[in-house]
Amino acid sequence: xxxQIRPPPSPPPLLxxxxxxxFLVLLFSIAAVSFASDYACQELSTSCGNVTDITYPFWxxxxxxxxxxxxxxxxxxxxxxDNTPILSLATDNYTVIHIDHDRSIISLADADIVGNAVAxxxxxxxxxxxxxxxxxxxxxDANLTFYFNCNVNLTEYMSPCLGKKSFVLTDDMIENNSFVxxxxxxxxxxxxxxxxxxxxxxxxxxxxxxxxxxxxxLNWSASTNDPCSHCEQSDGRCGLDETSRSxxxxxxxxxxxxxxSYNCSGTFTYLRPL
Length: 274
Ligand SMILES: *[C@@H]1O[C@H](CO)[C@@H](O)[C@H](O)[C@H]1NC(C)=O
Ligand SMILES: *[C@@H]1O[C@H](CO)[C@@H](O)[C@H](O)[C@H]1NC(C)=O
Ligand SMILES: *[C@@H]1O[C@H](CO)[C@@H](O)[C@H](O)[C@H]1NC(C)=O
Ligand SMILES: *[C@@H]1O[C@H](CO)[C@@H](O)[C@H](O)[C@H]1NC(C)=O
Ligand SMILES: *[C@@H]1O[C@H](CO)[C@@H](O)[C@H](O)[C@H]1NC(C)=O
Ligand SMILES: *[C@@H]1O[C@H](CO)[C@@H](O)[C@H](O)[C@H]1NC(C)=O
Ligand SMILES: *[C@@H]1O[C@H](CO)[C@@H](O)[C@H](O)[C@H]1NC(C)=O
Ligand SMILES: *[C@@H]1O[C@H](CO)[C@@H](O)[C@H](O)[C@H]1NC(C)=O
Ligand SMILES: *[C@@H]1O[C@H](CO)[C@@H](O)[C@H](O)[C@H]1NC(C)=O
What we know:
- The chain is an alpha+beta fold and 274 residues long.
- 19% of the residues lie in helices and 28% in strands.
- The longest helix is centred in the N-terminal third of the chain and has 18 residues, at 19-36.
- One 2-acetamido-2-deoxy-beta-D-glucopyranose (NAG) binds at residues 134-136, 139, 219-221.
């Protein structure tokens, strides 16, 4: 910040933009518009319920459209069901709460939990990502570990609503205690937001429901050993080229409207030339 005190600026002249400048501005906006619409893949719709920006690399599946050429990461298909956007990870469904394109972060919650009005929902699956996945847990996450029906005589951290001798522990509790429930029927690790966990720290036995409802965050990027990262580096967008409903192959949609099989620079074969 300059510490120097400047005289107040003189009022702007009430003249229209000089004609050449106006022309330039106009030219640029036309170029921007045509650039944006030159990708061969077009999003048919981007809204579902409260989530309005289901855009690349995510894509909203549309059952009614005849032939879709999805532009987005193949695994990032979002289905709109009863005005709720659903993303499937592994074999399980997650409700999309928010997509932050600037930070490359998607906020999700377990669809089983969100769609269930019961006071004491039961988590049923772990969610893990291989190291080369295009999704990863964001630094804002923490874990809640659920221990179901353990053969131990302890009352600390017990969550009676989950059933006989079931426990909920945060990472801190596990770290700080020599006690970890053992001989359990099932152990499930569920991601939650660190920030929300703080407010439920002392009433976790029941408060875990709220923490689960508030969801967790994942960050995304094209995995480096994925063909997609090469496509994106060449200013393309990854997607699928569907020649029919049953066959689809990886495609790189270039900003000039062409579709490449690998990336948009260098010499390559066009799946679909201009
Ligand atoms: C949309 O947001 C409103 C206000 O936050 C909320 O009451 C409503 O349940 C949301 N709708 C869906 C389908 O999530
Ligand atoms: C599917 O796409 C068509 C246009 O092809 C659009 O009119 C319709 O609203 C879309 N449906 C959904 C559920 O997005
Ligand atoms: C996930 O949602 C899809 C589409 O609605 C549904 O067919 C599938 O059964 C759901 N999977 C689970 C594990 O609930
Ligand atoms: C939570 O647990 C999963 C494994 O279930 C692990 O991959 C992840 O790093 C853990 N997150 C935190 C914040 O410790
Ligand atoms: C728990 O306590 C009951 C009764 O006090 C006893 O019968 C049982 O063996 C104990 N179980 C363990 C795992 O210590
Ligand atoms: C666990 O230990 C850390 C560091 O010693 C401390 O900051 C934290 O408050 C402890 N958490 C609990 C739940 O006792
Ligand atoms: C879930 O993850 C925890 C910790 O990694 C593991 O102990 C447990 O067996 C897993 N549960 C299932 C059902 O895979
Ligand atoms: C997620 O973010 C972490 C930390 O910012 C980063 O190291 C990691 O590569 C990211 N992973 C993905 C798949 O975006
Ligand atoms: C694009 O593909 C060409 C070969 O067709 C390769 O030489 C070039 O390095 C690739 N560019 C990127 C950004 O991957």
